[in-house]
Design a protein that fits this description.
The complex is a heterodimer of chains A (279) and B (352). In chain A, 33% of the residues lie in helices and 19% in strands. With 279 residues, chain A is of the alpha/beta class. Chain B has 352 residues and is α/β, with parallel strands linked by helices. The chains are: A alpha/beta (279), B alpha/beta (352). The structure holds zinc ion (ZN). Zinc ion binds next to loops of chain A.
Chain lengths: 279, 352
């Protein structure tokens, strides 16, 4: 792993947002890349294979057969049940995020086909409040899980999130219990759940549905963990091991089935569903 | 324990003992300082009365009345931040204290059968309030040595996996489960991550949601995030009056949103982490009252309230048909959350 000059340790991989302009710099290999070329290679760095963070809609476009996606539960909006205020009111924060992203909250759900196989998808959006899970994310993912059980369709959840959303406090926390309980029912019904982890998957999202897949797969070098590296660093003040909390680390420790390059996701998902559905 | 009077108060042979039982000096919280001052005045007057053989009973009665009304006023109007301090009071009863005070029998069970035994979560067979139960709870440790062993009540994956093993035992032998939650959160460390902290918490929530035996979870002190919820999916969720329960501690929340600790007090309000707020939001089913002035003033009183609540609630839960219980457990968590939905606005309630 290359180091960004002047930085090391847990904070080495920030500023991975998607910058504007014709050219962009890869945060991993630091090469200047032609934006169009990156987009054409599924937002993966052509020179070092760094997987850029992508919005939920871009992800869906990459995953499903062209034109096959039907969005569901699209009109579920966040409320501000706690009237939460930090430096900014949550209500204003939501409005700004909605304007910026054109989405109501941090997950897009629906039905689509992957290489001709029908599948239900819930895809988290890192561009909306860091993909954090509040009531809307929990509700939409739960409905998608319930739909998978009802319609006997495979379920794919793409996690990409900083964790539970602080601005809905305990209601966000309860989404962890809610989604996990729904997955228990899907499991009882014999449904297939594939959990795909993208960079980053942390906190309450990792500690609920993300880690409950029949299959758990991850994109290369994605940050995956319960506590964030900075929190751990602040607690134990010990140098974190090389590659700590990256996909390959989780695979090595037995918490991820396999690591998949973005270009192989469609075929690997189709392969898994073929093994697990009668045909 | 019984005879630990401060040297100053050690009575002369002929002098009557002070009216209150002698206990180790109570830690005084910042907002309790006016109370402590009154307490001190009472003690000094008592000492004077004993020493000079003068009758100050009228004055003392007045002071005690003032004290009680100030205590009531203070504790009826705690801010969220003050509540957090009460929940962390060093003399607030811990898991082991409750076991000693309310269990007729407790057979502790060790180990997750995979990696080790985590002292931050204790499990055991217990007789409690007339019921045989599986008792599970966070333990923060009483003295420094034990606190370090238990990581101050912050559990590792093996703690959650031990809890899961014991939950399954309870299911197999039809024992209801009682979980006592008291943690700042699951431990953030290298080993915890290597061994799947997130997976262990997620697995517990999934399995608890379908466990075929009644479950009762009570936040007795701190209910910090996933570390609390890892033993918090239950048929009934309750909190002791001055416990807190939140997605994140006010300090950690401030570190993220304010890049420092100065926002903690304000955020404690914003996070709506008190038992009263959470009862209103429907996150918990009941608030268990604490003795006047909090559990640290009267640990036996607090334990008694807890025991009464557990005994009664388990009686109620045992009466339910298991299938109904599981259906209601699912619905309870299913309905948590507040969203706005245009297409269903007139057909369903706002929540869920
Ligand atoms: Zn690169």
């Amino acid at each position: 792993m290359s180091q960004i000059p002047g930085e090391s340790g847990p904070s080495a991989r920030k500023n991975e947002g998607i910058p504007e302009g014709l050219w962009m710099r890869c945060p991993e290999c630091e090469e200047m890349l032609f934006r169009k070329a990156v987009e054409e290679s599924l937002h993966v760095c052509p020179s070092c294979d760094h997987h850029f963070r992508i919005s939920a809609r871009t992800r869906i476009e990459q995953l499903v057969d062209p034109g096959s996606f039907e969005e569901q539960f699209a009109d579920i909006e966040p409320a501000d049940p706690l009237k939460f205020v930090d430096k900014k009111a949550y209500k204003d924060r939501l409005k700004a995020e909605q304007t910026k992203t054109g989405n109501l909250d941090a997950v897009v759900c629906g039905k689509g086909f992957i290489k001709g196989r029908p599948i239900l998808l819930a895809v988290m959006d890192p561009t909306f409040m860091m993909g954090s899970m509040g009531s809307v994310v929990g509700e939409k993912i739960t409905r998608t899980i319930e739909a998978a059980a009802d319609q006997k369709l495979p379920l794919l959840v793409v996690s990409c999130s900083g964790g539970a959303r602080m601005q809905e406090s305990t209601l966000s926390l309860m989404q962890m219990a809610k989604t996990s309980a729904a997955l228990a029912r899907l499991d009882d019904a014999g449904g297939l759940f594939i959990s795909l982890l993208a960079d980053p998957t942390t906190g309450g999202v990792t500690a609920s549905f993300s880690m409950l897949g029949d299959f758990i797969i991850a994109e290369p070098k994605a940050l995956i963990g319960f506590a964030g590296p900075r929190t751990i660093w602040n607690t134990i003040k010990v140098e974190l091991p090389e590659g700590f909390q990256r996909s390959e680390f989780l695979e090595e420790h037995g918490f991820v089935d396999f690591v998949v390059h973005r270009k192989d996701l469609r075929s690997e998902i189709a392969r898994l569903t073929d093994f697990c559905t009668a045909k | 324990m019984a005879e630990t009077l401060a040297p100053k108060e050690r009575p002369e042979a002929t002098v009557a003992l002070p009216p209150r039982p002698a206990t180790p000096a109570r830690h005084v919280l910042e907002f309790e300082k006016p109370l402590a001052k009154l307490e001190q005045q009472i003690q000094e007057l008592e000492a004077l009365q004993a020493q000079k053989q003068v009758d100050y009973s009228r004055e003392l009665r007045q002071l005690r009345t003032n004290y009680t009304s100030l205590l009531r006023k203070t504790y009826n109007n705690l801010s969220a931040w003050e509540t957090v301090q009460v929940a962390r009071h060093p003399q607030r009863p811990l898991f082991k204290d409750y076991v000693e005070m309310i269990c007729r029998d407790f057979r502790e069970l060790h180990g997750d059968r995979h990696f080790g035994d985590d002292p931050a979560i204790k499990c055991g067979l217990a007789r409690l309030g007339g019921h045989k139960v599986m008792l599970i709870g966070h333990h923060k440790g009483r003295d420094t040595k034990e606190k370090i062993q238990c990581y101050f009540g912050c559990a590792h994956p093996e703690g959650y996996r031990k809890a899961l093993r014991c939950l399954k035992l309870a299911e197999k032998f039809n024992l209801p489960v009682v979980c006592l939650i008291d943690t700042q959160g699951a431990y953030p460390g290298i080993g915890a991550e290597e061994r799947g902290q997130a997976e262990s918490i997620a697995r517990n929530m999934l399995e608890m949601s379908r466990l075929r035996t009644p479950i009762l979870s009570i936040v007795t002190g701190e209910g910090g995030s996933g570390g609390a919820l890892g033993i918090g999916v239950a048929d009934r969720v309750a909190m002791l009056e001055f416990a807190w329960y939140s997605v994140i501690s006010p300090e950690a929340c401030s570190a993220i949103l304010f890049k420092g600790s100065e926002g903690a007090e304000q955020l404690a309000e914003s996070l709506k982490l008190t038992s009263g707020h959470l009862r209103e939001l429907g996150v918990i089913d009941a608030v268990i009252p604490e003795p006047l002035g909090g559990a640290h003033r009267d640990t036996h009183g607090a334990a008694h309230q807890l025991e009464q609540y557990i005994a009664k609630t388990l009686r109620d839960l045992k009466r339910c048909k298991l299938d109904n219980l599981l259906e209601r457990r699912y619905e309870k968590f299913r309905n948590l959350g507040v969203v706005v939905e245009e297409s269903r606005r007139h057909s369903t309630k706002a929540a869920g």
